[in-house]
């Protein structure tokens, strides 16, 4: 085995799409082609056979995640053309033993996936002693969304076993290089390649980074900076999809055209037209924050206008959301400042001082707490609970990646129905 190896994980549902993406991946330098678990569940052993036929010079990995009937499942994959078969590391020792014996009989290699193993170092040593060929330091996608890192798992395993270590879970060109530096012999990359609009270029970037890992340093990033960066790179619809259609405010109009905003909420509760607390909140908010104003539903008088907006812009505030009305829209649009409201009226309110700042509110049908993340664009505004912000930002990024690939396939002439194979996947 030449090292490092680039293994591309085809975690897709449709075989025709998987073949096309695999072809582009090979052009970009992929060594091993993994028939991912979703693809095997969707298409069965036919997926392994087809990949073997299309890529006779590449190692085909069958990610079977074997948990029982070790001999039977390894035999199935081997006879279908797999060169490497994946089993679950936490399978019973009897299952592992049968899988090892079948692998030797049929001339294939075994990779044990450490996903969800409580003591990965001890289990990796046991698996090596039982005859497993590779250990996979794998953190599953749902765990990745919560911030768990496959690189952390890899660092625990490095030097603990004598067999090659693979690493999988959310890797891209930068983190793949870090994986090689940390001791990975097999770098498994899925989403950042297979969901790319240019699969070949993405695979080539990963290939280059693992061949020369010293040129891909990563700078440290705080959790807040990571969330802001991720949310800035997705749309409000992406976030809504990631939240399963939760969090979207209703009745709002984007009053500044294409202006976008991302930031933490500074909440304001006031009554119709009382602009004291909304304006005072400008002094409370920090750079990059978003003011979210509950105006008691009134739209006949405005608690906000051009002068307040100018103050926000000067303070570096990212945007304003008002469950109520705004005036001076022409001046605000010239500023290109992100502003969302339910209506526009010329009537100004009065600064009476009623209400509160940074308390839990309801704005346009959504509960908003101080510190929740707010993303807004021309499609609307979505509230992301602060305790799930990193997870949702990561999931929204995966939604965006998926759409990029679908968009590219539509550009190539397929319809959305064809790409998604809607007739196949309609609910029965």
UniProtKB/TrEMBL annotation:
Give start-end ranges for the coiled-coil region(s): none
**GO molecular function term, any single one:** orotidine-5'-phosphate decarboxylase activity
A Gene Ontology biological process term:
L-ascorbic acid catabolic process
Q: What is a single Pfam family found in this protein's UniProt entry?
A: OMPdecase
The residue ranges of the Orotidine 5'-phosphate decarboxylase domain are 5-206
Entry keyword set:
Carbohydrate metabolism, Lyase
What is the superkingdom listed in this entry's lineage? Archaea
- What protein does this entry describe? Bifunctional hexulose-6-phosphate synthase/ribonuclease regulator
Organism per entry: Methanoculleus taiwanensis
Give the source lineage, highest ranks first: Archaea, Methanobacteriati, Methanobacteriota, Stenosarchaea group, Methanomicrobia
């Amino acid at each position: 085995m030449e090292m490092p190896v680039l293994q591309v994980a085809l975690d897709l549902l449709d075989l025709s799409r998987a073949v096309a993406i695999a072809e582009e991946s090979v052009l970009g330098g992929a060594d091993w082609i993994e028939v991912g678990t979703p693809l095997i569940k969707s298409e069965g052993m036919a997926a392994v056979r087809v990949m073997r036929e299309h890529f006779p010079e590449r190692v085909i990995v069958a990610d079977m995640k074997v948990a029982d009937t070790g001999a039977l499942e390894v035999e199935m994959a081997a006879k279908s053309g797999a060169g490497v078969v994946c089993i679950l590391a936490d399978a019973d020792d009897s299952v592992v033993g049968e899988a090892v014996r079948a692998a030797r009989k049929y001339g294939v290699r075994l990779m044990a996936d450490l996903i969800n193993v409580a003591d990965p170092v001890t289990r990796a040593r046991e698996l090596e002693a039982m005859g497993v060929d590779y250990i996979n330091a794998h953190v599953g996608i749902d765990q990745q969304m919560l911030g768990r890192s496959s690189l952390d798992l890899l660092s625990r395993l490095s030097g603990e076993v004598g067999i090659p270590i693979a690493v999988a879970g959310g890797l891209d060109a930068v983190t793949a290089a870090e994986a090689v530096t940390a001791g990975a012999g097999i770098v498994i990359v899925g989403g950042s390649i297979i969901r790319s609009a240019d699969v070949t270029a993405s695979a080539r970037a990963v290939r280059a980074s693992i061949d020369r890992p010293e040129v891909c340093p990563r700078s440290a990033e705080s959790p807040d900076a990571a969330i802001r960066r991720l949310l800035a790179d997705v749309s409000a619809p992406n976030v809504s999809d990631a939240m399963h259609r939760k969090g979207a405010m209703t009745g709002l109009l984007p009053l500044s055209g294409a202006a976008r905003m991302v930031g933490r909420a500074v909440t304001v509760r006031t009554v119709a037209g009382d602009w004291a607390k909304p304006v005072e909140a400008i002094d409370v908010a920090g750079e990059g924050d978003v003011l979210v104003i509950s105006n008691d539903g009134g739209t006949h008088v405005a608690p906000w206008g051009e002068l307040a907006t100018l103050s926000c812009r000067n303070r570096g505030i990212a945007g304003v959301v008002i469950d109520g009305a705004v005036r001076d829209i022409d001046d605000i649009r010239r500023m290109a400042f992100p502003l969302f409201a339910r209506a526009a009226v010329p009537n100004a309110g009065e600064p009476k001082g009623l209400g509160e700042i940074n308390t839990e509110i309801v704005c346009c049908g959504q509960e908003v707490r101080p510190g929740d993340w707010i993303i807004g664009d021309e499609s609307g505004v979505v509230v992301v609970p602060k305790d799930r912000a990193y997870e949702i930002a990561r999931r929204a990024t995966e939604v965006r990646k998926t759409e990029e690939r679908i968009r590219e396939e539509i550009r190539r002439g397929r319809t959305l129905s064809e790409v998604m194979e809607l007739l196949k996947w309609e609910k029965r």
